[in-house]
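I can't quite decide. Please look over this sequence plus structure tokens:

:::
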Amino acid sequence: MKRTTLLTLALLVGTAVFAQEFDKNLATARTAYATGNLQDARFAMEQMLRDLDMAIGREILKMLPAKLGALAVNEKQDNVSGAGALGLYVDRTYGTEPKTARIEIINNSPLLTGINAILSMPMLGGMMTNENQKPVKVQGYKALLNKDIDSETQKVSWDLQIPINNTLFSVKGYDCTEVEVLQWAGAIPLQKISQMAQ
């Protein structure tokens, strides 16, 4: 009970601090714009967008599963960053060495164009892919699965890249199987998160 109360209090304080920063940046932007100082107005607006990205990122973390298969989340390693017009980055890891998983969600990723080209043009995809790369489907979305074998340890790692609209989901698995990576990706609410990240 005490833990729940403390968590609720922390969320309320965090929300209040976010609202104060947002209101402060909004007032700064309005004042700067009204006086013709467009550079300061733009800076304040960029700060507001960054703060919104951070808030969206924290909401996305709540939507991610607490476990991927038998791998528990490492909440202390969660990473959320916002770059305003450049987008949002969310990173969460699961498990302990050697078997780990990682989910990365990147809005406006520069990799989107290349991945979409490979997935949408079978002939181009056939020329660019190799035996360690193949197209797959995850929850009805086209995705690209990459396999990497460490030359020293011979351990296999996987990188599943799922482009949805302007968001790139990456599910990485270390010392695991292809089936596990695909199952982990199936546990992520891709459509809900992509809608929130836009």
Remarks:
- Residues 2-197 form one domain.
